[in-house]
Specification:
The complex is a heterodimer of chains A (273) and B (354). In chain A, 39% of the residues lie in helices and 22% in strands. Chain A is built from 11 helices and 10 strands. A 6-stranded mixed β-sheet of chain A has the order 6-7-8-3-9-10, sandwiched between helices. In chain A, strands 2-1-4-5 form a 4-stranded antiparallel β-sheet, covered by helices on one side. Chain A is globular and about 60 Å long. Chain B has 354 residues and is mainly alpha-helical. Chain B has a single domain, classed as ABC transporter involved in vitamin B12 uptake, BtuC (Orthogonal Bundle), CATH 1.10.3470. In chain B, the strands form 2 sheets. A two-stranded antiparallel ribbon of chain B has the order 1-4. In chain B, strands 2-3 form a two-stranded antiparallel sheet. Chain B is globular and about 55 Å long. The mean pLDDT of chain B is 88. The chains are: A alpha/beta (273), B mainly alpha (354). At the A-B interface, helix 3, helix 4, helix 5 and helix 6 of A face helix 7, helix 8 and helix 9 of B. The structure holds adenosine-5'-diphosphate and magnesium ion. Magnesium ion binds next to helix 2 of chain A. Magnesium ion (MG) binds next to helix 2 of chain A.
């Protein structure tokens, strides 16, 4: 196939109104048995913003993401996405409303190729029914080819051409994280949620990932929530940072402020310093 | 026109070229030759008994393809496929004898009614997974068997139903040869449809649910709905095959549609290859031929003087069956489909297959 690094047309051509994402979380509380994973959390994510969430292990970051995407069921609070309360929706319904994610412990389909993994995420946009599909009518063929092009563009964009036909299970950890990003992008999410996408990556892989995320955010206004431990990455890429500890939000602000926030230094950065 | 043969690498220039089922003209030509042999040569050179065996192969293959969609592709192991086969058989038989519905609508009704029954038995899949779901399909098998035997006013119980002769567009279907045409036309059509289903979003969703249902849901796939679709397609295939079978053998009783038949279908897809449509056909062929060979062999042994009175030789069949399945699981867990792929790819580089 062509070897050039193009723009995915799903990004290049999309009108800003279609990619509008505003998330408002109010008083979210999630309890596991006796453990308060989230305690009365308020959080705003603005359209086009790159927001990072940091905090020590067990602070509740993944729990927050899982609550937003419908995998966990918080006991209290509201999750308003583009004006609609999405709390209590099933994960596939949340995805349909325009929230796409990656998982902390990579949840790819190891027995499928890179291509097939990303193709799967086009499911929402395959507008056809069983009867014509079972006859593989020309309209279905056209639709399949259209999605195939989009998938290839995403593969080009993330510079994965050499491995497009490889089984995901055979790829190194850092590359799998990139495949998972590609799969999330194929969902054309209004809000992109990434749970520790840099974990286990080499320095070079991290640099490339930062470049992709920055480009997606700056050029195509991709609203993004990033959960990440690597403070260097977080400081360099985020517009705003939220700090969690023990299920509570303890600080919030732009990178310069967070760097010097006493609570943050005590609760989180202090551990490493 | 230039023939497209199998290249050593992937040099396709457009995505459309990757869509066809047969990638090369060689594949297309050989399948065309296969079809010509199937419809214009085999029926005339094969005797009645051989056609009878082939007809059974095709009927079981249709049912096995259905089970493979549910179990091999979607990952939901069903122990009720034998009973679903029976639901189709009974539906067609009852429609033809009681309501004098013609052959074609009856066999399609067999498929549709079984799809509905399959939907009902698929409902537990919203809550149950793995072993628990499998056990609920076993319950389905037992419930249906009970209905076949005990709802006598509908099924005539153990005495069974004799079917009238089938006609299609005014032709009497009486010989093995005339049935051969009907059965194999449906066989080809249903195989093609199954191939289409698995290469579109439905197949992708099924495989995703099988491999990682949480991730599948995260990718926007309503997994319960797709499990139900898979149950419905799978049981349609079983019911349609069962209906064809009933009209072909022209008499049915509850006896064949037991748990044992369910196991045979599972054996077919394991031996043929889980998650392979073509493999299901290989598996159905293998098991049907093995069955025939064993019953011939046992018949022969029982006629020998030395064995007279040894009725206990019957379990021999089950033993061979189990042995074959275990051997396949150990030595070729991907089934005959994998063997076929290896044979094909050694042809690919022929004569330089290094
Ligand atoms: N499914 C679950 N069941 C029970 N406890 C959980 C579950 N998920 C997370 N927790 C608990 O909630 C707390 C927050 O975990 P998590 O959100 O994974 O933290 P983080 O992602 O910030 O490291 C931890 O104490 C964790 O043990
Ligand atoms: Mg986490």
């Amino acid at each position: 196939m062509r070897a050039f690094r193009g723009e995915p047309s799903v990004y290049g051509d999309a009108q800003p109104a279609k990619r509008q994402a505003e998330l408002k979380i109010e008083g979210l509380t999630l309890i596991f048995g006796g453990l308060m994973a989230l305690n009365n959390v308020d959080l705003d994510v603005r359209n086009g913003e790159f927001l990072s969430i940091v905090g020590p292990n067990g602070a509740g970051k993944t729990s927050l993401l899982n609550s937003i995407t419908g995998f966990y069921r918080p006991q209290k609070g509201r999750i308003i996405f583009n004006g609609e309360d999405i709390k209590g929706l099933r994960p596939h319904e949340v995805t349909k409303r325009g929230i796409g994610r990656t998982f902390q412990n990579i949840e790819l389909f190891p027995g499928m190729s890179v291509l097939a993994n990303i193709f799967l995420a086009r499911h929402l946009y395959c507008n056809y029914r069983l009867a014509p599909a079972s006859l593989f009518l020309p309209s279905i063929q056209k639709e399949e080819v259209r999605h195939r092009k989009i998938v290839e563009e995403i593969i080009d964009f993330l510079e994965m051409q050499p491995i497009r036909k490889r089984l995901v299970g055979s790829l190194p950890y850092g590359i799998r994280k990139r495949v998972e990003l590609g799969r999330a992008l194929a969902l054309e999410p209004k809000l992109l949620i990434l749970d520790e996408p840099f974990a286990g990556m080499t320095l070079e892989e991290k640099e490339e990932m930062v470049r992709f995320l920055r480009e997606i955010n700056r050029r195509w206004m991709q609203t993004t929530i990033l959960v990440e431990h690597d403070m260097a990455v977080v400081m360099s890429i985020s517009e705003r940072i939220v700090v969690f500890n023990f299920g509570e939000k303890i600080a919030e602000g732009p990178p310069e402020v967070i760097k010097n926030h006493p609570e943050v230094i005590k609760a989180y950065l202090g551990e490493e310093a | 026109m230039r023939l497209r043969l199998r290249p050593c690498g992937n040099y396709k220039e457009s995505y459309k070229e990757e869509l066809p089922i047969f990638e090369t003209d060689f594949g297309r030509i050989s399948s065309l030759i296969g079809l010509i042999l199937l419809f214009f040569v085999i029926p005339f050179v094969f005797g009645s008994y051989n056609l009878y065996v082939l007809n059974h192969v095709a009927i079981y293959a249709i049912a096995a393809v259905g089970l493979n969609i549910l179990t091999g592709f979607t990952g939901q192991l069903s122990l009720g496929h034998g009973a679903f086969f029976g639901v189709g058989a009974y539906t067609a038989s009852i429609l033809m004898t009681r309501l004098h519905v013609p052959f074609l609508p009856s066999i399609f009704a067999g498929g549709v009614s079984t799809a509905l029954v399959g939907l009902v038995f698929g409902i537990p899949s919203s809550r149950l997974k793995h072993l628990y779901l499998t056990i609920s399909t076993l319950a389905g098998q037992l419930i249906l068997e009970y209905i076949f035997i005990n709802w006598e006013s509908l099924t005539c119980g153990a005495s069974g139903i004799i079917l009238p002769k089938s006609t299609i567009f005014g032709f009497d279907l009486q010989t093995d040869r005339s049935f051969f045409y009907v059965i194999f036309i449906f066989f080809v059509i249903f195989l093609w449809i199954a191939k289409n289903i698995v290469r579109t979003k439905y197949g992708r969703a099924f495989i995703a649910i099988r491999d990682n249902d949480q991730a599948a849901e995260g990718m926007g796939i309503p997994i319960f709905r797709y499990k139900l679709i898979s149950f419905a397609i799978s049981s349609f295939y079983a019911g349609f095959a069962g209906a064809l079978w009933a009209t072909y053998v022209a008499s049915i009783s509850p006896e064949p549609f037991t748990f044992g038949l369910s196991i045979e279908f599972i054996a077919m897809i394991i031996i043929g290859g889980l998650g392979s449509i073509t493999g299901s056909v290989f598996g159905a062929t293998f098991i049907t031929l093995l069955n025939e060979a064993l019953s011939q062999g046992i018949g022969y042994l029982m006629n020998l003087k030395a064995f007279t009175g040894m009725v206990t030789i019957a379990p021999f069949r089950e033993f061979i069956f189990g042995l074959v399945i275990v051997l396949f699981l150990i030595f070729e867990p991907k089934g005959l489909a994998e063997v076929w792929r290896i044979v094909k790819s050694s042809f690919k580089l022929w004569p330089f297959s290094y």
